[in-house]
Amino acid sequence: MATAIRLRPRLRCRERLSRFSSIRIGGAVEAVVSLSSSEVFGDVLDMYHRGEIPGPLAFVGRGSNILFPDAGLGGTLVRFEHGDGGSGSRWHPDGSVDVDAGLSLPALARDAARRGVTGFEFLSGIPGTVGGAAVMNAGAGSGQWSDLCESLVVATGSGGSDILLPQDLRYGYRTSALLEISAGDPSAPQRHIQEKSVVLSARLRGTLADPAECQAKLMSHLDYRRSTQPLDEPSLGSVFRNPSGGPPGYSAGRLIEECGMKGRSVGGVMVSPRHANFFVNTGGGKASEFLELLAIVAEAVLKQWGVILEPEVRVWNA
Ligand SMILES: Cc1cc2nc3c(=O)[nH]c(=O)nc-3n(C[C@H](O)[C@H](O)[C@H](O)COP(=O)(O)OP(=O)(O)OC[C@H]3O[C@@H](n4cnc5c(N)ncnc54)[C@H](O)[C@@H]3O)c2cc1C
Fold first, then answer.
1. In this predicted model, what pLDDT tens digit does every residue of 5-29 receive, in sequence order?
2. Where is the catalytic site (predicted)?
3. CATH number of residue 281's parent domain
4. Which end of the chain lies in a sparser environment, N or C, as judged by fewer CB atoms within 10 Å?
């Protein structure tokens, strides 16, 4: 994406992973590289090949869907984090837009509404990036990433890139062909590159509309979230996917709530009293506590409803 200033990737050593996850959990990592634009992704590969940063490389956005391990990670966390060097998006008159992997979803949604392009409003309350949404097929209400996505630009190695189309991406409910590759077991960076799983940018398309209507839709999405979700506490959003089985119309949250699990906690991790499918870090929470609580909740739902809940959060191993 066009940026006003080409900022070099920023390198930091021996950082706490908890700083880079929205639930504030995770041990140390050897190195962290932050990219203010995916244009400088080639610089990261050069740094890796010159031995300036340790491998393996693990690729993340805002860490709003990742449970990092208490024991920490070896290698380098590569963060796509759009900075102040440019807008991170290039709009076209027909309602399509090219967006950088590190662009924040709420910023994109606000920009679309301001320009009178509808279809992006559901992204306004999802605190992740374009790259994370492209991998997770993020969605809310009746909208999901795959409704907007026309193509992705992915890294092929040595700073090169290729284009993936929706048929390559096999999007489904909170899943994509990229997900298993970019998952919680960061392996050699060459594999990510060879399998084209590192997202650099996306081409999205909305529909031209009245800006006031877009703004009203966006505000109603945000109001709904504020009234139902614990947005002022550290969390990873929905812990479990909504199940396909179980009583018709029951979400994972409702199944958990009706097991009486709201407020249940293990150490510093608690099932939110506000939304039963959110676990919040009440202070000093650990990944081990999160996983113990996850097992307790899944067991309770299985026992009461006969439904197997599957995690939506990405659990990374040390
Ligand atoms: C309060 C709250 C509310 C939420 N609400 C929703 C919701 O309504 N709907 C929803 O779908 N999600 C929701 N989430 C979860 C999360 O915000 C989304 O899954 C989001 O898309 C993740 O984006 P991210 O940038 O944080 O990705 P991360 O959490 O950093 O990464 C997620 C996965 O994508 C991979 N990844 C990230 N960037 C790249 C890249 N550039 N190239 C390759 N791989 C990459 C990572 O390796 C990881 O496997 C919520 C989370 C919170 C905390």
1. 567 888 988 999 999 999 999 999 9
2. 174, 238, 312
3. 3.90.78.10
4. C
